[in-house]
Amino acid sequence: MFDDHLHVRQETLARQLFALKQGLDTLCSRSPPDGRAVNNPQAGVPRIYTTYITEDKAEQSLRFLRPLTERLPQPLLFVTSADKLVKLVVGNYGTEVHRLLAKHQFAPALYGQRCLESAPTAYVMEFLSPPTLKKSGWVTLFDFFKLKDEDLPTRYANAIRIALDHILDVMQDEKMVHGDLRPNNIMLEVIDSGNTPVCSDEKQGVKLRVVDFDWAEMEHDRRLVQEWMSKRFPSMY
């Protein structure tokens, strides 16, 4: 560096070196002590939601890992580091309907939410993971109805109808509606990747969970369910 009797250049360089040193110290303090690389989320995963407020008003940390599906250019569903699911919503979301059905185990548990100015609201809920060879999991009724073994959905049609009636009765008793109760918004628990439904008790039939409450309280559900069920299983009507 050329001599500078006013020490302006020296002071500027000193400030920059000091800032660089602070940045390096911060990075080192966040690295694991054994030198392993930090498991950062992949590109395209939201980073502005660092915490969320639970249903009992406590603040919990939140870290997104990956989109639920890689096929969408702008995903709104994300899996977190705690095996939870986050849904980003712009506009209406039927929180009360979700809570009601979750209370009766007809929807994923709702853990909390995070509201940020000029950003979608993040709703944190139970992740209904897909089935594996060794563990039961969840598929949509839409996918279940598309199985190559067409006899399987038919065998469980009545059990599905019983479970759907229970869900509709719960909402009707509280004068609430889901608004978009179609097969792609209803999850069915299956035993394994063979897609055999998990049966609960005789009264419920199969285990169903309702998802996607964006249209809650906007339409009538029972008519919508009867419409697509009668098309899929005409002999029942």
* β-strand number: 10
Strand-residue proportion: 15-25%
Q: Identify the quaternary structure here.
A: single chain
Strand order of the largest sheet: 2-1-6-7-5-4-3
How far is the first residue's CA from the last residue's CA?
Answer: 89 Å
Rounded to an integer in angstroms, the radius of gyration calculated over CA atoms is 25 Å
Describe what is shown at a glance:
This protein is an alpha+beta fold and 237 residues long. Helices cover 30% and strands 19% of the residues.
Structure description:
The chain is an alpha+beta fold and 237 residues long. It folds into two domains: 51-126, Phosphorylase Kinase, domain 1 (2-Layer Sandwich); 137-236, no CATH class. Helices cover 30% and strands 19% of the residues. The chain is built from six helices and ten strands. It has helices at 8-30, 95-103, 141-145, 151-155, 157-173, 221-232; strands at 51-54, 59-61, 64-67, 77-80, 84-89, 110-114, 121-126, 137-140, 186-190, 208-210. The strands form two sheets. It has a seven-stranded antiparallel β-sheet. Strands 8-9-10 form a three-stranded antiparallel β-sheet. The chain is elongated, with a radius of gyration of 25 Å. The protein starts with 7 loop residues before the first helix and ends in a 5-residue tail after the last helix. 22% of the residues are buried. The mean pLDDT is 84.
Q: Any chance you could write out the topology, listing elements then pairs?
A:
Layout: H1 8-30, E1 51-54, E2 59-61, E3 64-67, E4 77-80, E5 84-89, H2 95-103, E6 110-114, E7 121-126, E8 137-140, H3 141-145, H4 151-155, H5 157-173, E9 186-190, E10 208-210, H6 221-232
Antiparallel strand pairs: 1-2, 1-6, 3-4, 4-5, 5-7, 6-7, 8-9, 9-10
